[in-house]
């Protein structure tokens, strides 16, 4: 089976060669690499062009304007000719046998999606496992959705991050694309995809390396993060209502909402240390809250004790 590996690129000249080398040197060779340059302003394009002449299985697309990772992935999906799809961020990298193991799981288990662990690598620190599964397994999409949303309080869960997964292309072509301009495009994509009736392999390997760097999207915060949080969950809720799944999925939706808003606040407090600015973000989030919800619901969804600690520290 042929894997189409889609790599969105935006101003990652420092890390891009490491990423591309790790894909090119995979022990599994039936791969095409689709690089989508989202209007980088650094040397990324120069680096990409140096690789193009040496690799016949590499394809290059340059967007007309900077539109975000979701849009770049959609562009790559349309260009993909493989049976399977994989997404790799251009500052991350893969162990040499990553795709070999993912293919082995999918073939052995006759599944539609494979989920692996993730190894986290930060500056000047030893790698550490970010997500890990104790053993290989096969699960239903119903159970996978519960693990994503933490509905059943299992000891491990599935991250909405799309990079540590291998997908049959037909699933994506027939059901959903990425939201073009949302920080939470992975949340929308993964929630809706796991609603489909798919068989899913869980791999005990953690050979996808996520590079945790200062200045990346996950280490920044803005009002757009709050706007996109509401955009994502309004999108999911509308989808559930339109497909008559709202009643069936309301518990998963609520749990996923709570999990994601907790991550939103973690990002806020991690990226922004200025208390006055933190208050501005929180007031803005309250102002975005739906009229039929209460601030108490919001605080309960996150953590009452953390809110109490925070407000005592800044008053």
Relative strand content:
15-25%
Helix vs. strand class: alpha/beta
Low-confidence stretches: none
Strand order of the largest sheet: 3-2-1-4-10-6-11-9
The largest sheet is:
8 strands, mixed
**Strands, total number:** 12
The helix content is 40-55%
Mean residue pLDDT: 87
**Tally of alpha and pi helices:** 12
The N- and C-terminal alpha carbons lie at a distance of: 59 Å
Record keyword descriptors for this entry.
315 residues; alpha/beta; 17% strand
Q: How would you describe this structure to a colleague?
A:
- It contains twelve helices and twelve strands.
- With 315 residues, the chain is an alpha/beta fold.
- It has an eight-stranded mixed β-sheet with strand order 3-2-1-4-10-6-11-9, with helices on both faces. Strands 5-12-7-8 form a four-stranded mixed β-sheet.
- Helix 5 (141-149) packs parallel to helix 9 (246-271), helix 7 runs parallel beside helix 8 and helix 8 (223-242) runs parallel beside helix 10 (275-288).
- The radius of gyration is 20 Å and the shape is globular.
- The protein starts with a strand and ends with a helix.
- The mean pLDDT is 87.
Question: Would you kindly provide a brief summary of this structure?
Answer:
With 315 residues, the chain is of the alpha/beta class. It has helices at residues 16-24, 44-52, 69-79, 98-109, 141-149, 169-175, 185-194, 223-242, 246-271, 275-288, 295-302, 304-314; strands at 3-9, 31-37, 58-62, 84-87, 93-94, 113-115, 118-122, 128-131, 137-140, 165-168, 199-202, 208-212.
